[in-house]
Amino acid sequence: MRQKFTCPNCSTRFKADIPDDLPMVMCPTCGTNIPVIRDEIGSVGDNLRQAATREGNWIVWAAAAFAAEVSRDEYKTAAEPICKTSALANERILSGVRKEVKEGKLKPAAAKFAKASMEQASTLKRLEALPQPAADEARLARWLSYLKLEAELFATAGRKLKAGDKPGAEHVFAKLTPNANKANNQVLPFEFHYCRLEPQKFT
Questions:
Q1: Inter-CA distances, 81 with 11, 178, 182, 194, 202, Å
Q2: What is the pLDDT of residues 124-172, one digit of tens each?
Q3: Angle at 111 between CA 106 and CA 156, to 5 degrees
Q4: CA distance 49 to 38
Q5: Cα separation of 6 and 125, whole Å?
């Protein structure tokens, strides 16, 4: 039976085909268990029910059902809250960092870039865990590789600044915008807002 769900934790909306008597499904974004509300109509055979529920396999079954049918709109709906959280976090983390670098306050700026790199890496793991539209798997793999590179560039910039190498850090900054442009071009069909990379805000 197909049902629509909205995660109470992260507000992700998704659909899944749920066998009869399964107690809950797992949010594909944050992993929260969501109770299944049923009426009295329809059922599935005992073999299917037992196979789906044995040793927690209902979680795997539900996630697979969602993954098999995820659309671009559904992927965007799942990804954007993750990206929004990360974007707002990095706005706070990197606030004032451009001025600090300009004024030679390299150690505080280094700490901010190191922290931003960890935030980006954490976001990347959450995005990599999302089910993807089958037709877009190659496109999204390239996009995620550019997101990974941005996290690595942030980390490198932090190390350069910590070592007092301002020219070296600026050389790293120069790589951020071209990388962001490549990333954003990969996912133009998704019409992302928060999942767009905009390093020019910070560097």
A1: 8, 25, 22, 8, 21
A2: 999 999 999 999 999 999 999 999 999 999 999 999 999 999 999 999 9
A3: 80
A4: 15
A5: 22
Residue partners of 35: CB distance under 8 A and separation at least 6: 23, 24
Q: Encoding tokens for residue 8?
A: 């109470």
SS3 assignment, position 141:
helix
DSSP state of 134: G
- CA–CA distance, 97 with 161 (Å, rounded to integer): 11
Burial class (CB in 10 A: 0-12, 13-18, 19+), 83: buried
Kindly state the helix (H) or strand (E) to which residue 24 belongs, with its residue range. Answer: strand 24-26
**Residue 136, C-beta contacts closer than 8 angstroms, at least 6 positions apart:** 72, 75, 189
CA atoms within 13 A on the CB side of 9: 12
Q: What is the largest CA-CA distance in the chain?
A: 70
Q: How is the chain split into domains, by residue range?
A: 2-69, 72-201
Phi then psi for 2, rounded to 5 degrees? -80, 135
Identify the helix (H) or strand (E) that includes residue 67: helix 57-69
Q: Which residue has the tokens 């008597």?
A: 21
Given a cut of 50, whether residue 54 has pLDDT beyond it is: no
pLDDT tens-digit map of 58-83: 445 455 554 456 899 999 999 999 99
